TrEMBL record:
GO biological process: polysaccharide biosynthetic process
Keyword terms: Aminotransferase, Pyridoxal phosphate, Transferase
Family in the record: Belongs to the DegT/DnrJ/EryC1 family.
N6-(pyridoxal phosphate)lysine carried by residues: K185
Organism encoding this protein: Leucobacter chromiiresistens
GO molecular function, one term: pyridoxal phosphate binding
UniProt keyword annotation of Transferase present: yes
Named cofactor requirement(s): pyridoxal 5'-phosphate
Pfam families for this protein: DegT_DnrJ_EryC1 (PF01041)
The name this protein goes by in its record: Aminotransferase DegT
Keyword Hydrolase: no
């Protein structure tokens, strides 16, 4: 009998989610309504210290609308990492502002504070760090730089539901933070995003931009989008919200098992966690020798039926869509990470036997290249 494939990610949808969707569908009220309002309130209370929270139809929409709501536009610069999903830089570019790509530090794959400092100009409006893989960015140093230069922080918390820094939740550090609810993220609503806001003004602006610029029907105040979440999606998200803490704890236990099993395997560097950080392991990302990474990934799949992922193989400043913002830019740690990272399965559906299989497979495959 063939051994079962271990996928790199696996959304968990239970009977409760199906029942919640059915309840909304039967009500006949499907578009944004009371489920969305309840989900916003519950999400903000759970993940952002009660901050005013606005639901939208994707994380990318949330990031784009959050930036517009914070007044970012043509002539402004926003500092972003290049080692991230393209949505980070895209959302800045979509406002008409310029994404300024800077390098990461090598320990946690997050924005390098010294590189951020060096990239600040009189046009810098804000810094948008990413809590990459579920590990918070270097909050103390980035906040100090933002304060010193009078620039804002906008958080990309797409991958970091429940992560924290010295007891402060991610999602409470910026003028706004965006969380994604895409199926492979730590919790899902199908598609969706949440914007947690530091001020009532930003929250109101996001609400206006989400719904054609209207607060009162047909009294359109500004030019806006339709970026609304449906009650169907909110119903899924509300159920997931009751389960996500247990899933996060399981991700952390799985990561600890992988750390222990892979410690000392030559050529495999397990992920580091900063002493101030709580990591929620959206991804469990190891570093491998650049010349070995693709061989190891292929052998895990072909010989052991173990899935894995490369997040992200092409730095954003070299994407055809975004390279015009970074002509000739050299970001050595970003390039090195893009060539070395491999994310192993860490999702909460893994059994102990799965974890043993992953560890045995990586150990066998990593040793085979020498
Ligand atoms: C997923 C993700 C986004 C975008 O979220 P969507 O819900 O897919 O639009 C933005 N930034 C990062 C780092 C992400 O992982």
């Amino acid at each position: 009998m063939a051994i079962e494939f271990i996928p790199p990610a696996k959304p968990i949808i239970g009977q409760e989610e199906r029942d919640a969707v059915d309840r909304v569908l039967r009500s006949g009220m499907i578009a944004q309504g009371p489920e969305v309002a309840a989900f916003e309130q519950e999400f903000g209370a759970h993940f952002a210290d009660g901050r005013e929270t606005v639901a939208v139809n994707s994380g990318t929409s949330g990031q784009h609308l959050g930036l517009l709501a914070a007044g970012v536009g043509p002539g402004d610069e926003v500092i972003v990492p290049s080692f991230t999903f393209a949505a980070t830089g895209n959302s800045v570019a979509l406002t008409g502002a310029t994404p300024v790509f800077v390098d990461i530090e090598p320990e946690y794959f997050t924005l390098d504070p010294e590189a951020v400092r060096a990239a600040i100009t009189p046009r810098t409006k804000g810094i948008m760090p990413v809590h990459l893989y579920g590990h918070p960015f270097l909050v103390d140093q980035i906040e100090a730089i933002a304060r010193e230069h009078g620039v804002a922080i906008y958080e990309d918390a797409a991958q970091a539901h429940g992560a924290s820094w010295n007891g402060r939740q991610v999602g409470t550090m910026g003028d706004f933070a965006m969380f994604s609810l895409y199926p492979t993220k730590n919790m899902t609503s199908g598609e969706g995003g949440m914007v947690t806001c530091a001020s009532e003004t930003i929250a109101r602006n996001v609400r206006l931009l989400r719904n054609q610029g209207m607060e009162t029907q047909y009294a359109n105040e500004v030019i806006g989008f339709n970026a609304r979440m449906t009650d169907v999606h909110a119903a899924i998200g509300r159920v997931q919200l009751t389960k996500v803490d247990a899933w996060t704890a399981q991700r952390q236990r799985n990561a600890a098992a992988l750390d222990a099993g892979l410690a000392g395997v030559a050529g495999v560097q397990t992920p580091k966690v900063h002493e101030s950080a709580v990591h929620v392991y959206h991804q469990y990302t190891v570093r491998l020798d650049a010349g070995e990474r693709d061989r190891i990934r292929e052998a895990l799949k072909q010989e052991h039926n173990v899935g894995s992922g490369v997040y992200y193989p092409i730095p954003n400043h070299r994407l055809p869509s975004l390279e015009k913002y970074a002509p000739g830019l050299d970001l050595p740690e970003t390039e090195r990470a893009a060539a070395e990272v491999l994310s192993l399965p860490v999702h909460p559906s893994l059994s102990d036997a799965d974890l043993d299989r992953i560890i045995a497979a990586v150990t066998a495959v990593a040793g085979a290249g020498a």
